[in-house]
Write a structure and sequence with these properties.
The protein has 686 residues and is an all-beta fold. The chain contains 3 helices and 52 strands. Helices cover 2% and strands 45% of the residues.
């Protein structure tokens, strides 16, 4: 690993993204917009998407046809014949760590021979549950998930021969083509057929290729599109395709998200979500030393959205792309993040430096992608049945563990006298859709809050940059719990992952009923952050165990007349999500002064799902200035005035500045993406 990369910690850093804009994505007939840091053509179609439900609808993807019926039951997508006839004697899948490129590279030409055949995949333990899947392999080699790594220097010509070894299913190959590309390529291979494709690799970047079988990799809808049921996911057939510059370093790591899923009956569903072919706790442990420069490429080879979150540190986003094209940011336009949304088929390159030793996590922030629901088969355990001290049991799916050792001569920073706060975890009487009402309540004054008092969301914690603060969390629940300080740069022991945070000498325990734990915080930057439960995530988050954490510069104060927090959560776990903002579906009008700048801080801490945000006058979006993402200030190229439209993924925060131009009534709308907003709040400007 290269030494010496330093991610700037304080405000005024040079690295951030280009100016944001609104881009439209057209996915299988559905259109949606999202706030994005643009690069030409980054977001392009990706095959396995939902389609609008009509009485009869024919979907054409490459050479694959599918008919969707809108009956009252669940339509089933036919299995590929080879999959339905798979034998237990199939070869065993090798979890591909993406360290060794496939093929033979000589004199500027990559000779690559691939096959697609059936294999038995053990995505968890090697002796754990398995599924029979179609998988790529190099000719004569073991099947691999993700698919074999294609990695070549720019200027390489790729000569790829692909053979369909399935006896009774046509295979459709996508992505074996020159990059960038403006259209999907599709190569069909009948059973037993081989084909050789020769093409220049194309531009430097991070891409992917994949295969589909027959009519798999499709969403099938019920009559109400919001109650869609994924019938089949077969994204284990995705792999990385990387084109390196002639001068760039290849000392990086590549992580590919793959998903397999299937209906068990009319209502049930089983799935497995993996990083480089394995699900936590069987994913790779990444070893590092303080001061190392870690460079990662993360590829979403699935049909789901994945907001990828790093604990304890910021990472720098160096490029964003799709399976067809990529764009590397100029150094002055690179931005920092702690959570980065990766829609289906998209990629990113990131760099970060662990400055503090200990155990850390990099994971998807959709709760169902990192809890027992991501297991095969799901046992639906909760924190009541999985001990909080066992991180191997209370997490699953898309989680990577990072173990950072102190470098020789490492000296821990000295903390000064700390401000002390007491935060109580309470449960009260339910008053909403959620069957339980739990929250964090800050002690104000000399006496603790009543044991049954709840504030949803939890008390806003206003802290000062650079001021050491110790927060003692007192657990009044009947079960164990843990608190994660999302986005804060802190010591590992205080990070809030029970049984994992800390180091080889000690790890942080879960907070037992009636017990307490003191988190030691020192905030090196000001901004908008989150604190939330990190045990029994779905129930905890949908019941109110989250809150905002605002860090101010010394001398600044939080003025609720001009500083406004909007925390999007979910009321209960029923689908579709019932979005609430600041704990409610309805809020009284908000009064603002014309010509006065107002800071609006948006947080999405729902268990899963993107929220759409708009601020309009009549039917027209007004303008605001983007200020920060995940607590890190944006550079001038991105911190500019844009239409007041945003999409916020789980675990992301965005700060904007709104300068009301003149008096009148405005409407702030927040809700699930692609549906009418549930939360409408009137803003009266005087």
């Amino acid at each position: 690993m290269e030494k010496g990369l330093k991610i700037p910690r304080l405000k005024g850093h040079a690295g951030s993204s280009p100016a944001p804009s609104i881009v439209m994505n057209h996915l299988g007939g559905l259109s949606y917009s999202r706030l994005y840091f643009p690069m030409p053509g980054t977001v392009l179609p990706w095959p396995p998407f939902a389609v609008p439900c009509a009485p009869r609808l024919l979907v054409v993807t490459g050479l694959t046809l599918m008919t969707v019926s809108c009956g009252s039951g669940v339509a089933r997508t036919p299995l590929a014949k080879s999959e339905s006839n798979a034998r237990s004697s199939a070869s065993t899948v090798h979890a591909n760590d993406n360290r060794k490129p496939a093929g033979t590279l000589r004199a500027g030409k990559l000779e690559l021979r691939l096959t697609v055949g059936m294999a038995k995949w053990y995505p968890e333990a090697d002796n754990g549950p398995s599924v029979d899947v179609a998988a790529f392999a190099e000719e004569g080699g073991r099947p691999q998930v993700p698919a074999p790594l294609i990695r070549v220097p720019v200027g390489t010509t790729v000569v790829a021969t692909v053979r369909n070894s399935l006896p009774d299913s046509t295979v459709y190959i996508h992505g074996l083509a020159t990059r960038p590309s403006v259209a999907r390529d599709t190569i069909s291979l009948r059973p037993g057929e081989s084909r050789t494709i020769t093409f220049p690799a194309g531009a430097v970047g991070t891409y992917l290729y994949y295969a589909t079988l027959g009519t798999t990799n499709r969403y099938v809808l019920r009559p109400n599109p919001q109650s869609r049921r994924v019938i089949m996911e077969r994204e284990q057939l995705s792999g990385a395709f990387v084109v390196d510059s002639t001068t760039g370093s290849t000392d990086d790591r590549i992580f590919v998200v793959n998903v397999w899923g299937d209906s068990t009956d009319a209502r049930g569903y089983r799935n497995v979500l993996t990083l480089n072919g394995k699900s936590w706790p069987n994913t790779e442990r990444i070893g590092a030393t303080t001061g190392d420069s870690l460079r990662w490429r993360v590829i979403n080879g699935s049909a789901r959205n994945h907001p990828m979150h790093l604990h304890g540190f910021y990472f720098r986003v160096d490029s964003r792309g799709s399976w067809l094209r990529d764009s590397t940011y100029a150094p002055v336009n690179r931005r920092l993040a702690v959570t980065e949304s990766l829609p289906p088929g998209e990629t990113m390159s990131m760099a970060w430096s662990p400055e503090r030793p200990g155990n850390w996590l990099f994971h998807c922030h959709v709760a169902q992608h990192v809890t027992d629901e991501a297991r095969l088969p799901a046992t639906m355990k909760t924190s009541h049945s999985v001990p909080g001290h066992d991180p191997m049991g209370h997490m699953a799916g898309l989680v990577l563990g990072v173990e950072v050792r102190p470098a020789a001569g490492f000296v821990e920073s000295i903390r000064g006298p700390a401000r002390r706060l007491r935060l109580f975890v309470n449960e009260g009487k339910p008053t909403r859709l959620a069957p339980r009402a739990m929250s964090f309540v800050l002690q104000r004054g000399d006496h603790p809050p009543a044991a049954d008092s709840v504030e949803i969301p939890g008390t806003v914690l206003v802290l000062k940059r650079g001021e050491p603060t110790d927060i003692t969390v007192v657990n009044r629940l009947a079960e164990e719990m843990a608190v994660h300080w999302h986005g804060l740069e802190l010591e590992s022991f205080s990070d809030g992952v029970a049984g994992w945070s800390g180091d080889m000498n000690r790890v942080a325990p879960a907070i037992a009923p009636g017990g307490s734990f003191t988190a030691r915080l020192t905030m090196p930057r000001s901004g908008t952050f989150i604190y939330h439960t990190h045990l029994n995530d779905v129930e905890g988050l949908t019941s109110g165990l989250y809150g905002a954490l605002v860090v101010l510069d010394p001398g600044d104060r939080f003025d609720p007349l001009t500083d406004h927090l909007f925390i999007a959560g979910t009321d209960g776990s029923a689908r579709p999500n019932k979005v609430i903002v600041n704990g409610a579906a309805v809020s009284p009008p908000l009064v603002m002064g014309a010509g006065v700048p107002h800071r609006m801080r948006f947080i999405n801490i729902s268990p899963g799902g993107i929220v759409a945000i708009t601020l309009r006058r009549d039917t027209t979006a007004v303008k605001w200035r983007r200020r920060a993402k995940d607590g890190a200030d944006l550079p001038p190229s991105a911190a500019r005035v844009v239409p007041a439209i945003a999409r916020l993924d789980v675990g992301e925060t965005v700060d904007v500045e709104f300068l009301p131009p003149f008096p009148g009534e405005y409407t702030l709308a927040i809700g699930n993406a692609n549906t009418p907003p549930r939360y409408l709040r009137k803003i009266i400007v005087r």
